[in-house]
Amino acid sequence: MTDKQDDFRSFAVGAGPRLLRLARLLTGNWTDAQDLVQSTLLRCFTAWSRIRAAENPEAYACRVLIRLHVAGMRRVGHRREQLVASPPERPAPYTPFEQVEARTALEVALRSLPPRQRAVIVLRYYCDLSVTDIATTLGCSTGTVKSQAAKAMRTLRAGWPAGIL
Amino acid sequence: MNDELLRRELRAIVEDSPFDPAIIEHVVRSGRRRRMLYRSFAALAAAGFVAALAVVVVDFGSINAPGGPAQVTPGASGATSTRGAPESASPARTHEPGPTGPASPVPNAVVGIGYAFNLYTHCGIRYASFDSRNWVAFQPMPGIPDGWDNPYQSGTMTLVKADVARFAGPRGIVFNFIPTSKTIPVCH
């Protein structure tokens, strides 16, 4: 039992930051991202005997995370606004203004996407997965992935400053 | 379409990952609790299942246990032999009687419920043993109604009132029985 827990701990330490980045892109803020990662790790912990025997436990965890996110968004609805005590995102001081503006616009456009489209964009352009791998991760067909990607890109193009995408 | 720019911007958004390793200990603790909870539920469900199974087995055993008084009935050669309750019944909803032989007895019949019942017809329609009591036909019939089987006819016996039982056989033929304190005579 302790061996398994230590094994899980070392996995979580290694994969946690990467899962958190992925969750951040999916949820749009670090707070929800941390909650999502915690739920994902909890799922992984309860099934750790099976997961650690898998070829790539982190890929499994990514799948769990994305599916939890999509299912969670379905449950709570598409939250476009969130009240926070302080501005959650601050640009780095050295970042040029135009770049900050473009990045903020991208975030806003990304947040406006439905959860599945957002997952497709993140998996395609952040995780660099192939269409087939994305389809496997999301549990849908490659045709669905392509159509969702095309729709998402249209939305992103409309949301970003002209000429960037 | 500048895919590279999109990739770069997405990476830039999540450049600093404020991952707190303390979350892992929290997950492990919660996971242990959840696992114990699952195991408790599983143990509880298993215990419930075993208890339910035991009740069903005991119940089934009591239904199939030989009940009712033994009755003297004629053998094939005319000689008498002792059998366990040739006319016996079980609830029609759960048991269908065999076409030629006795079914499970019902020690305590409930008024208004039809029980599958095999009526002994070999010496006409006269007597029946039902509800741990002996019954005599209100209007006995020396022979066997047309289309009925010999020596048993399957049908439905209903306790219409506390002291009236009604046997309904095929072709809509019905016989009413009343309780008797007499021993059912041997069929010659």
Description of the molecule:
The complex is a heterodimer of chains A (165) and B (188). Chain A contains 8 helices and no strands. Chain A is mainly alpha-helical. The model of chain A has no long low-confidence stretch (mean pLDDT 81). Chain B is an alpha+beta fold and 188 residues long. Chain B has 2 domains: 17-63; 71-180, no CATH class. Helices cover 29% and strands 30% of the residues of chain B. Chain B has helices at 3-13, 22-64, and strands spanning 70-74, 80-84, 89-91, 114-120, 125-130, 133-141, 152-161, 164-168, 174-180. In chain B, the strands form 2 sheets. A 7-stranded antiparallel β-sheet of chain B has the order 3-4-7-8-9-6-5, with no helix packed on it. Chain B has a two-stranded antiparallel ribbon with strand order 1-2. In chain B, a hairpin with a 5-residue loop joins strand 8 (164-168) and strand 9 (174-180). The longest helix of chain B has 43 residues, at 22-64. The N and C termini of chain B lie far apart (104 Å). The relative contact order of chain B is 0.12. Chain A binds chain B through residues 5, 8-9, 12-13, 16-18, 20-22, 24-25, 30, 34, 37-38, 41-42, 45-46, 102-103, 106-107, 121-122, 125-126, 128, 153, 156, 164-165, and chain B through 1-3, 5-7, 9-14, 17-21, 23-24, 26-28, 30-31, 34-35, 38.
